[in-house]
Amino acid sequence: MKPSKKLIFALLALVVSQASLAAPEQLDRVALQINEGIVLESEITNLIATVKANAQAAGQSLPSDTALRTQVIDRLIMTRLQLQMADRIGLHIGDLQLDQTIANIAKEQKMTVAQMQQKIEAEGQSFSQYREQLREEVTLGEIQRIQVQRRIQVSPQEIASLVKLIEEQGLKDVEFQIGHILIDVPSNPSGEQLDAASKRANIVLKRLKEGEDFRRTAIASSSGPKALEGGIWDYMNINEMPTLFAEVIRGSKKGDIIGPIKSGSGFHIIKIMDARGLETKELDEVRARHILLKPSPILSEDRAKAMLEQFAKQLRADDSKFAELAHQYSEDPGSSAKGGELGWADPNIYVPEFTQELKGLQPGEISEPFRTTHGWHIVQLEERRKTDATAQFNSNRAHQLIFRRKFNEELQSWLDEMRSEAYIEIFEPISKRG
Q: 23, 43, 157, 334: which has the fewest C-beta neighbours closer than 10 Å?
């Protein structure tokens, strides 16, 4: 049963009634309905303008306005579906967590929050708009992590096989920047639909081999997850990338174009945009301990932060009570029984905010309270050391690589499932209707 459209008609009536009191001007309109939510034409227009501005700044050509609009609508649909899911499960990024994220970004850029705000506003964007865009990005990252992580299983056999490969390679990997174009096919396609998609894929491949710009072609033609980025995936080694990529790029070099490759989702064309070697380095490890408080209806964000501020002040005077406080208050089940001890680890295994805090601490120093997706923390850096890449490190790295590869694959499956179950209607402008 289709969702009621009363919300759409009510909004249109409100827009019309308000506009009637003003001078004649172009009215906004409902362009999409996504389940019970709507997307206005102005949102599409604004995103198209942003993509065009970014392309102009990068010297990148774009496809036709029609092709670009199709890709923008697709991106808005997928974004809105994920935000609706976040809302359904009660996932909301509060201002304190957002402030912490902004502070971390400013620190990474070696500037204060005030300096970063000045820079953003000098580029023509309001800081409040930047905050809300960042809130949306963090929300998308979190809902993806929550929904996709539980779908992934990494077996001991997979880890053992990859550890063996890593050891054979001597930890010398190559990272590839992949360009990807997907010519999709519908579920349970007919023979005619398969043939049509295959012909389109071969036409695209021919144009690319004749020198047509890959990014422009991807924006115009691809149904892949990176279409609006010109089909470009960030640098990945062969163990991190989706299986389909890994199976076809072995032995390939920069500039090679591979495809079309048929899969259940359609026909893929892959280009090796770049490749870079990685040098083996010593591993920097840290030994740290922390106390975690998780905000709840009983413990507010402000109260959790205030408690940790008091703990930090007390421990800076005498850190012999750290284990006692962690055992009594910390809500990290993996470390609270051990007095908050996390043991020796590569700091990059932690969530980004935790890693960033550790980088800024000297041995023995205790951090100020900071927010991560898990809650509010204080952390004490106990020691640093350099160590060779041990068997345990290889095992941890293998798990991470397999997890990341599967995450990319499962993320696309989850997005496809969510879209197939959603009610989506696209309303064409009146001028385009019959």
A: 23
Q: From CA 31, how far away is CA 187, in angstroms rounded?
A: 26
Quick one: which H or E segment has residue 270?
strand 266-277
The token pair at 328 is 């009594």
Mention every residue, 6+ apart, whose C-beta is less than 8 A from residue 358.
Answer: 286, 288, 347, 350, 379, 381
* One-character DSSP codes across 65-100: HHHHHHHHHHHHHHHHHHHHHHHHTT----HHHHHH
In this prediction, residues 200-216 reach a mean pLDDT of 94
The pLDDT score that the predictor gives to residue 150 is 87
Q: Which residue has the tokens 């001597």?
A: 170
Rounded to an integer, what distance in angstroms lies between the CA atom of residue 385 and that of residue 63?
Answer: 52
| Tokens 């301990």, residue located | 289
Which own/partner pairs from 425-429 qualify as long-range (CB within 8 Å, at least 24 positions apart)? 425/32, 425/33, 426/31, 426/32, 426/73, 427/29, 427/30, 427/31, 427/32, 427/33, 429/29, 429/41
- Evaluate if residue 206 carries a pLDDT over 70: yes
Q: Which stretches of 210-351 are DSSP H helices?
A: 214-221, 243-249, 301-317, 322-329
Rounded CA separation 45/50 (Å): 9
Q: Which structure tokens are listed for 196?
A: 């049509």
Pairing of strands 257-263, 266-277: antiparallel
Q: Is 175 helix (H, G, I), strand (E, B) or coil?
A: strand
Could you tell me which residues are beta bridge partners of residue 141?
Answer: none
Closest by CA to 214, choosing from 184, 255, 248, 249, is 255
List, for residues 120-153, the tens digit of each pLDDT value: 999 888 999 999 999 999 999 999 999 998 899 9
Average pLDDT, the chain: 86
- Coil, strand or helix at 297: coil
The residue among 188, 74, 82, 186 whose CA lies nearest residue 418 is: 82
Q: In whole angstroms, what is the distance from residue 308 CA to residue 94 CA? A: 18
Which residue in 32, 78, 27, 69 sits closest to 48, CA to CA? Answer: 69
pTM of the model: 0.56
User: Would you state the pLDDT for residue 265?
Assistant: 87
Classify residue 382 by its DSSP letter: E
